[in-house]
Amino acid sequence: MRFTKSIPNMFTLGNLYCGFLSIGYAANGQYKNAAVLILIGMMLDSMDGRLARMLKADSVMGKELDSLADIVTFGVAPSFLVYYTYFFQFGLLGFAVTGLLPLFGAYRLARFNISSNKSSMNYFIGVPITAAGGILALLTLFGDRIPNIITSVIFTALCFLMVSRIRIPSFKEIPLPKYGTIVTIFIGCLLYVIYKGTYEQFPYLIYIATPLYIAYLSYRFVKRRNQRNME
């Protein structure tokens, strides 16, 4: 019973570890690996909360652990990735600017955690840090086809959008896990990578995570459809 209740936290820690590995890959110049690990972190992040509710293992510690993992994987890791791929040419100024993402992301998470009514089922207040980190990872993954100025503008915009009061559609009513739209794009990217024959550049973990996540998506979709049919 205790093991069952610890399963969601294991997914959260897996998310955190993906962030750590991403920073290491980025420091060693393996930027595609670093970007992929952030996206794998998104997979794990989309699953831990739902597993906690499914297993009736919700806890305050789990929620706080999730926020700490998100800061690393979707705040610190994308910042290093963007710095090493583009902002490094601006020296100390570039390093300081990339630090805005984890700073603003941490503020956004803290504001969300203390919110009395949380977010509506239909929208988030400000861009979630998970979405911001995932978007930057995707931009880096295809950085050779995207001008650096576009990445810079999007990076700056995401920093301020996270702490804004703008309502962002949550798409929670769509029968996919949280942030499933972005991860679905990632699956398409994976198929493209395999088609181009460059799969050897990516960590083998991606070939374990992707089919597992596809199975999870299918399970959630079938379960949601069955529930609606019963109603």
UniProtKB/TrEMBL annotation:
Keyword Protein transport: no
Keywords: Lipid biosynthesis, Lipid metabolism, Membrane, Phospholipid biosynthesis, Phospholipid metabolism, Transferase, Transmembrane, Transmembrane helix
One annotated GO molecular function: CDP-diacylglycerol-serine O-phosphatidyltransferase activity
Broad EC category: transferase
Subcellular compartments: Endomembrane system
InterPro entries xrefs: CDP-alcohol_PTase-I, CDP-diaglyc--ser_O-PTrfase, CDP-OH_P_trans, CDP-OH_PTrfase_TM_dom, CDP_ALCOHOL_P_TRANSF_CS
Origin: domain of life: Bacteria
Family: Belongs to the CDP-alcohol phosphatidyltransferase class-I family.
Name of this chain's protein: CDP-diacylglycerol--serine O-phosphatidyltransferase
Catalytically driven reaction(s): a CDP-1,2-diacyl-sn-glycerol + L-serine = a 1,2-diacyl-sn-glycero-3-phospho-L-serine + CMP + H(+)
EC number: 2.7.8.8
Main location: membrane
TM region positions: 7-25, 92-110, 122-142, 148-164, 176-195, 201-222
Record's bilayer topology term: Multi-pass membrane protein
Secretion signal span: none
